[in-house]
Write a structure and sequence with these properties.
With 323 residues, the chain is an alpha/beta fold. The protein contains 8 helices and 14 strands. The protein folds into 2 domains: 187 residues, L-asparaginase, N-terminal domain (Rossmann fold, 3-Layer(aba) Sandwich); 103 residues, Rossmann fold (3-Layer(aba) Sandwich). The protein has a 9-stranded mixed beta sheet. A hairpin with a 2-residue loop joins β10 and β11. The protein starts with a strand and ends with a helix. The structure holds succinic acid. The site of succinic acid (SIN) has 12 residues, from loops.
């Protein structure tokens, strides 16, 4: 499938969450020692001349380095996105965010909202003060996509490439094109305001805001345990002995494999009623098959598998309360 169209009209709401796109450094040469999440979203929007003539609104939802992202902010963000997307005059919503946990936020919003209008996340690898800042172009591309006729679902655009939000992975620590969508590749790309689409829009039915409403009191505790040379099960046993762990993601080697001692401990966790998912510490590729008692995470990254278990714990806790 391929389509190339010019952007159309429609109001876009831009929700700021912080990140390097809102980062500031002392020098325009500094793309390492900057502080993320310092510049307000209204200033980011005002810095892009091409956005001035468009019907836009900007709202600051959070101002964090995304390494410090929390489920509470996700909940607040999901509520603001849902509010704005429900407004008939709003064509789409853009979220400015840090790159480091962008894949988690994108997956969370995809699973909770799966909106029928476009929800476009964007970010930057260089701070706003850099000589060759990438944020302004990424923001312009995100608005272009949010106004694109027929666009829908959670999307991410960075470095001109458009990704389905639910499949996003950060795969490089420094490059401007730091993301991938796994083997299926990007959904499309934007060049000079022209959007070319290669894959279907994201599909799926969102769990809905009520599914996460009760979490405000206490978010489930989902830990990640990594397999490695010499790994054994002591971390898992310590988690079980400590109590309070609601689920565990295993970041396995290769196709989600675990060392014998760690696998035995993972089975003890399952026997103790702790749900698990087996993902891969490889940057790319799915986990298929393996020990059926330790379910494979499929195409989810380790971080996305953690979000998936978080949501499953919430849903199952809700079932327990209503059942
Ligand atoms: C962050 O994730 O907030 C900092 C790093 C970045 O945005 O690239």
């Amino acid at each position: 499938m391929q389509s190339v169209e010019k952007a159309a009209g429609g109001r876009v709401v831009i929700l700021g969450c912080g990140g390097t796109i809102a980062g500031r450094a002392e020098s325009d040469q500094d793309t390492v020692g900057y502080r993320a999440a310092e510049i307000g979203v209204d200033v980011l929007v005002a810095a892009v001349p091409a956005l001035r003539a468009l019907p836009l609104e900007a709202e600051q939802v959070a101002q964090v380095d995304s390494k410090d992202m929390t489920p509470a902010i996700w909940q607040q963000l999901a509520a603001r996105v849902a509010f704005h997307l429900a407004r008939p005059e709003v064509a789409g919503v853009v979220v400015t965010h840090g790159t480091d946990t962008l894949e988690e936020t994108a997956y969370f919003l995809h699973r909770v909202l799966a909106p029928s209008k476009p929800l476009v996340l964007t970010a930057a690898m260089r701070p706003a003060t850099a000589l060759m800042a990438d944020g302004p172009q990424n923001l312009l591309d995100a608005v272009t996509l949010a106004r694109h006729p027929g666009a829908r679902g959670v999307l991410a655009v960075i470095g001109g490439e458009v990704y389905p939000g639910g499949e996003l992975r950060k795969v490089h620590s420094r490059r401007l094109r730091a993301f991938s969508a796994g083997d299926a590749g990007p959904l499309g790309r934007i060049d000079d305001g022209r959007f070319e689409r290669w894959r279907d829009w994201p599909a799926g039915v969102g769990l809905g805001l009520p599914a996460i409403a009760a979490a405000a009191a206490k978010w489930p505790r989902v830990e990640i345990v990594t397999n490695h040379a010499g790994a054994d099960g002591r971390i898992v046993d310590a988690l079980l002995a400590q109590g309070g762990v609601d689920a565990i993601v295993f970041a396995g080697t290769g196709n989600g494999t675990l060392a014998l001692g760690l696998e035995a401990a993972a089975l003890r966790a399952v026997a103790a009623g702790v749900p698990v998912l087996r993902a891969s510490r490889c940057g790319w590729g799915p986990v298929l098959g393996g020990n059926a008692a330790l379910p494979a995470a499929g195409a989810l990254s380790v971080a996305q598998a953690r979000v998936e278990l978080l949501l499953r714990c919430l849903i199952s806790a809700q079932g327990d309360r209503t059942g």
